[in-house]
Structure formats: C-alpha cells, structure tokens
Amino acid sequence: MDFSSFLLMRQEIILLAIIILLLIAEIFIPKNKKSSIVHFAIFLFGIHTIVGFLSINECSIFGGSFQTNNLIHFFKNVLNIGVLILLLQSADWIQEKIVAQDKGTEFFILLFSSLLGMYFMISSGDFLMFYIGLELSTLPVAALAAYETSKRISSESGIKLILSAGLASGISLFGISLLYATSGSIFFHDIIGTISASNLTILGFILFFAGLSFKISLVPFHFWTADVYEGAPISVASYLSVISKGAAAFILMILLFTIFKSLMHIWENMIYVISIATMFIGNLFALRQQNMKRFLAFSSIAQAGFILLGLISGTQLGTTTVVYFIMIYIFSNLAAFGVVQAISSKTGKENMTDYEGLYRTNPKLSLVMLLALFSLAGIPPVAGFFGKFFLFTAAASEGFYLLVFLAVVNVTISLYYYLLVVRAMFLRKGENPIPFFKNKIYMRLGLIITVIGIIVLGLYSPLYEYIYELSSIYN
C-alpha cells in the first residue's frame, strides 16, 4: 500500500489534522484571546467541508477493513455540512459560556473526534473497524452531554448516556461475537458468502441490531433519548438528533442491504413492527411535551420510525429514499434546534409556552421555526414532504400498504403537535413574550443555510436522481 492509498482516507486524515492543530492552538493562544479558537475551528472545518466535495475513487484498503465509494463519500459530505451548520449555530454559546470556563478547545476536539468515529463506522469493511468507529463516535458525546458542569441536569444527562451506551455497546458486541462464531470471519465480504439463517446467526443479528438501534432511538431502545436531550446542551442534543442518528441509520442500511440481505425474511418483520411502534410512541409522547428539547426528542424518535419505511423495502429505491430523507431531516431539525438555541442563549427560555407571541417580537425566527416544523411534518412544498413521499413510495412498491397507511396516520398526529408550536408563536399573546433580539453573524448564517437547504431540497429533484445513481452499488 503506497501513499496514494492513504489519500483515499483524506477526510479522516484532514479531520485528524484539525484536531491536532486545535491542540497546538490551545497551547500557544494566550488566555485573553481564547475566543479566537472558535473562529479558527469553524474556519478549519469549513475548509475540510469544501475539500470533501473533491471526487474520490472507490477503494478498499487495510485488507478490506476500510472501504469507500461514491455513496459513502457523499454521505460524509452531508455529515460535514450538518456539523458545520451546528458549529455556526453554537458559536455564540461557546464564546459566551464555554470559552469563559476555558473549555472551548476541548468542545471542538470532542465533537470532531466523535465525527471521526462516524467516518470510520460508515466506511468499515469489518466488524472490528465498525466497533472502533461506534465507540469513538459515542464516548466523546457522553462527555459533551455533561459539558455544562454547573448544571446538575447536564451531569445526569452524561451519566445516563454513558451507562445506556455501555449497555448497548455490550449487547452489540455480543451479537458480533455470535456472528463471528457462525461465519468464521469478521470481514463483511466473507460473511456475505457464508451467513445462513441458523438460530445462532439470528440471535447474533438480533443482538447486533438492538445495539445499533440504541443510537437511532428506535423503540424500545429510546428511553434514554428525552432525558439526555433535555439535560445536554442544545448543540449536543442537536448533534445526537441529526448527525449521530443519521450516521447510525446509514450504516444500518448498508449492513442490512449487504451482509444481512439473506436474512431479509427475518429483519423485514422486525422492522415492520419496530417502525409502527417507533412512529406511534414518538408521536404520542410528543403530544404531552412542553419543554422544546424533549418535544424535539420525541419528534426525532418518530422520524426514525419513518426512516425504517425505506429500510424495509431493501431495494435501490429504498437506499435512495433513506439517504435523501436523512439529508432533509438534517436541515429541518437543525433549523428547529437552531431557533431553540438562539432563544435559549439570549433568554434561557425553553418551554413551548414561552414561544407565545414570538412572531410579534421576532418574526424572522418564527418563520424559520415554521418552515422547519412544516418540513418535519411533511407539508408541501417544503423538502420534508418529498422526503416522506419517497419513503412511502419505497414501502408501497414492496406491498407494505398497511404500514404506509399507519405512517400517514402518524403524519397526521405529528402535524397536530407541530401546529401547537405554530399556534403559540403566531396566534397566542404571551404575558411575558420573548423580547426582540438580534442574532450574531454565525447564528444568522447557520439558520440561512438550513432554510436554503429545506427549500432547495424540496424543489431540486436532480439531486434525488443523483443519489439514486450512487445507490446502485448496494442493490
């Protein structure tokens, strides 16, 4: 393997270089200028995001442990855009509260380390690389969840996440060991030719699926989600909701459509039941929430149930719709979390009742939230409508008409609770409305990018066709 082979890992290498540069900057930047680390980190990651759009060849290195292709490379770029938006939305909070505690550099290092783990996870060619990537993507986020050490609820959030993640990791690892016992290999391309529907293999798959379902917040592995989101800083909750969930859903799709394709008659029934339970429980519990972070947590659980509609088809159309929907979901959810972040940073208010009369004092923020919620609900012509429509089409094309009907019922339920927020912002007059405030440039830029994404993805259909072409590799 020569030097050119390492260039095929350029996204991982550049991100690792950014982490090292941040460590060096932490040493040499004077204490009274620590706030500049925020600009430095966003600048470096912006360059990394741009470089990621350079084309890359399909390859497999390290004996097949690491692999990449155009679809994986494209999805890494989607994750990069999501993280860049998140950094822009979090910049003011980091400068005002985290840098003051001399923990700004550590925040970026933990966040980028988690993203690096996701890179390795979705590029893994064997279960060892997959597991290392899974752990690297999870452990730094547990530290980030407990980052506001002055708040007891934040520490509680970190403890709940690390304990739940440890249990899920152990279950997943036990499942991997059973799959290794039945196939004799940890490499995906070897397992494809040897896997059979034996009892031990099925048990191993179920345990592995359960461990990965934890990261996606699928029912019944969702109990940690609302509590962790509520206690964690909003930027961390946003990261868990979109970036972590999106990467886990993507690698689950790849594994189901490749090494577990022969077990489709088994996991198809599992996904059918879990999808219905996830959609209904996520939506019904969202109806009862007043805290906006818990509200968006149960909303994200319901959205995970919709993602399973694309997975259950097992076709090229299913692959395309899953990737397309995750991309739309990232922009939509980041827009909603961005508004919550902006309001919380300025006023400390996070309850739905606090949003009453928001349109009268902050009309632009209200419109961004409206657009985000309409996209999450699937109202045309915004992007979320087309994302859900394509998911329903993928499931219906394989004859899952009852599942599609139940999904439509859940869309109706979700529309009701999303409109509760819209009613509070536009139709209610609060006794103490949130006063007018103006966001700084980073937050405004982050929200503008999300709005552009929501509108463009709903109108620019050639992007869907491009993803469809890339998806042929797994079908």
Largest sheet: 2 strands, antiparallel
- List the quaternary state of the chains: single chain
Structural class: mainly alpha
Strand content: under 5%
**Coarse morphology:** globular
Count of helical regions: 20
Compute the separation of the termini in Å.
29 Å
Total number of β-strand segments? 2
What is the spatial order of strands in the main beta sheet? 1-2
Radius of gyration: 21 Å
Mean pLDDT across every amino acid position: 86
How many structural domains are formed by the residues?
1
SSE ordering: HHHEEHHHHHHHHHHHHHHHHH
- The unreliable regions are none
The helical percent reads over 70%
Question: Can you lay out the helices and strands and say which pair or pack?
Answer:
Layout: H1 3-7, H2 10-28, H3 36-51, E1 59-61, E2 66-68, H4 70-98, H5 104-122, H6 127-145, H7 152-183, H8 188-194, H9 199-216, H10 223-231, H11 234-257, H12 264-286, H13 292-311, H14 316-347, H15 358-361, H16 363-377, H17 383-397, H18 401-426, H19 441-459, H20 462-470
Antiparallel strand pairs: 1-2
Helix pairs in contact: 2-3, 2-5, 3-4, 4-5, 4-11, 4-14, 4-19, 5-6, 5-11, 6-7, 6-11, 7-9, 7-10, 9-11, 10-13, 11-13, 11-14, 12-13, 12-18, 13-14, 13-17, 13-18, 14-16, 14-17, 14-19, 14-20, 16-18, 17-18, 17-19
Overview of the structural elements:
Helix content is 76%, strand content 1%. With 475 residues, the protein is mostly helical. Strand 1 (59-61) and strand 2 form a beta hairpin. Helix 2 packs antiparallel against helix 3. The longest helix is centred in the middle third of the chain and has 32 residues, at 152-183. The two termini are 29 Å apart.
